[in-house]
Amino acid sequence: MIFSKTLISWYLQNKRDLPWRKTANPYHIWLSEIMLQQTRVAQGLPYFLSFTTSFPTIFDLANADEEQVLKLWQGLGYYSRARNLHATAKYIASDLHGIFPDSFSGLLKLKGVGEYTAAAIASFSYNEVVPVVDGNVFRVLSRFFNIETDIASSGAKKEFTALANELIPKDNPAIFNQAIMEFGALQCVPKNPDCGICVLNSGCLALKYNKVGELPVKLKKTKVRNRYFNYIVFSDAIQNLIIRKRVEKGIWHNLYEFPLIETDGEVDFDSISKLINDKYGNKNAILSIKPLNKSKILHKLSHQHLFVDFYKVEVEGLLEEAITYESMILFPFPIVIFNFIEKELA
């Protein structure tokens, strides 16, 4: 089909030089695909290079300590990806003797691998004829073919996968999948694409009917929850600090943080001081409390907006289980806390 040939021709001339495109190694392709879920290539690339340097093989990753994996992942977000990555590496190394499943259906059984990731690995590593359907693909196909199906609806994935399956060349599925994703990332971008230079503009129905800005249709809105985190940075007589591991399910599972007082809304200094004294005042005498950030820090996650404050609390004597700054920075932290540490405590 002209659509597929034009797309592939564009890709061969315009594709970015990325390390995971120079290999059919399923380990490297799996790593890159997990890292690039909801992450831009520019942000994910340094992490890919760090992981492949630190863990050259699936066995190296499997044998790593989880905290080492989370520390390397620090700042990439969606930390469940890192935990699933580590669990899957251990499974492949021990149960599959280091050999990845070599089919779409087999790859789907791996923890943290959904249809899109399984299709990417199956086509890029094993040349299996299976289309990838991600946000870029939804956008390119909905615009070119003027598809008004809500991409958040239950049947959208099936509809777009069927269409992509008709378009994918059976003799070279990998290059088509790479091409359509790259086209969506570089040319058919979400906002204000340059349709004047687009190689598909003569057949694009969205352009013909002046609907480029309206497609793809996505009606479902993400519900965002506001949370208010007040972190207590204790400092004892020798400036040692307290951190804790977030063992509860939810955001930042198994990462580290300072002692936390979460409130239902914003609180003033007098209120937080009272909460700190009520909760911690019976352990070591509190000498002083002072805010460490001039204005509230807003940290946005996909379904939550976190309003974060840090308070330095100096206490009398020595704190039990306190550690030095040098020891503390070796632990994996959520990036909002790590950035604060580097800026205010270094």
Automatic annotation (TrEMBL):
Matches recorded under InterPro entries: A/G_AdeGlyc_MutY, DNA_glycosylase, Endonuclease3_FeS-loop_motif, HhH-GPD_domain, HhH_base_excis_C, HhH_motif, MIG/MutY, MutY_C
Cofactor, how bound (note): Binds 1 [4Fe-4S] cluster.
EC id: 3.2.2.31
Catalytic activity: Hydrolyzes free adenine bases from 7,8-dihydro-8-oxoguanine:adenine mismatched double-stranded DNA, leaving an apurinic site
Keyword terms, alphabetized: 4Fe-4S, DNA damage, DNA repair, Glycosidase, Hydrolase, Iron, Iron-sulfur, Metal-binding
Domain HhH-GPD residues, every copy: 35-186
Stated role: Adenine glycosylase active on G-A mispairs. MutY also corrects error-prone DNA synthesis past GO lesions which are due to the oxidatively damaged form of guanine: 7,8-dihydro-8-oxoguanine (8-oxo-dGTP).
PANTHER family recorded: ADENINE DNA GLYCOSYLASE
Name this protein carries in UniProt: Adenine DNA glycosylase
Lineage: Bacteria, Pseudomonadati, Bacteroidota, Flavobacteriia, Flavobacteriales
